[in-house]
Amino acid sequence: MLLAIICLFSACYFKNTDKMYLTAAQRLVEEFPDSAALYLDSIVDVEGMKVRDQHRYQLLSIQIKDKLHKDLAQDTSLFRLRGIYDKSDPAMASAIYYYSALVYEEQYKYKEAMEECLKAEQFSETMDKKQKGMIQNTMGRMYLRQALTEKAREKFRNSLVHFQDIRDFASECIVYNQISISYLIEENIDSTLLYCEKCIECLDSCNNYVQIASILSDLSLIYITVGDDKKANSYLEKALALPMNSLELAKVNLSLAKINKNNPMHAYKYIKDALKFADKEEDLLFFANLYSFQSSFEEEQKNMNLL
Questions:
Q1: 283: helix, coil or strand?
Q2: DSSP label at residue 12
Q3: Which of 138, 165, 236, 258 has the smallest number of Cβ neighbours within 10 A?
């Protein structure tokens, strides 16, 4: 009898504690995803939770991975939650559709991802401006990955309005960088540099080192492309001082390859390093840039017996 009472109290204790951890993770995920992950990892009995809380746990797991810049391509279990909360909890329904879009995006399924973004938008009355801006920005990013630059800029500017309304300077900085890249694809140098300057003006507002490194490495590649090696080197040095993921390391090595193009042995080493770091990354525009440079470089060197 005593053992049964102890087990009962233990079960109640863990259930209450798990619910507290889940709530804490949800509260922290936007600003402190590392801390949110610790709370989520502390949950003892996910299957013992109410079904709704199990779904919250599943959604939070993906939100945290997204905030920590981890791959989402395999998180297709989220798809099973679509439609469940459309009437009972529109805010949760919107989040499920939005993160389903991110899963599709990382699978390069842009049509399906766009459809999920549009479903998420149906619940816009439940969203704050940050969420509205993120959905618009995600659609813009998908257009940009397909080099549909005008459509991309339309969505980026829509997202910019929302971010400016809430004085989210870090997100604003990212959008300026995205718009500059869209103009660079069109070889519109004046507009590219204009938005680079806007990006640089608000760069200090970013507090995420991975995002800062990403922007700096993009700026380095942009200035190399427009022929300003001095500025390219300056941003490259700043990027190298920050922690970077594999994609940013690949971008840095591509910048170094381009800067050292007149020193073929060094340039080829940096090309190989860029290919190594980019092996499992998903930025199709970067891959196009990398392979284009590699092809032209090898064409120039083919008669020099250096490769």
A1: coil
A2: H
A3: 165
Taking only the tens place, the pLDDT of each residue in 6-39 is: 443 444 444 578 888 888 888 888 888 899 899 8
Output the six-digit token pair for 31: 């600003």
Helix (H) or strand (E) holding 22: helix 2-28
| C-alpha–C-alpha distance, residues 279 and 98, integer Å | 27
State the pLDDT at residue 13. Answer: 44
Terminal Cα distance for the chain, rounded: 79
Tens-place pLDDT, residues 275-285: 888 755 456 66
229 token code pair: 């090696």
Amino acid at 258: K
How remote is the C-alpha of 245 from its chain's centroid? 11
- Cα–Cα distance for residue pair 146/122, rounded to 1 Å: 25
Candidates 128, 132, 133; CA nearest to 160 is 133
pTM of the model: 0.78
Q: 264-277 vs 284-301: helix axis angle to the nearest 10?
A: 150
Tokens in use for 221?
A: 């590649």
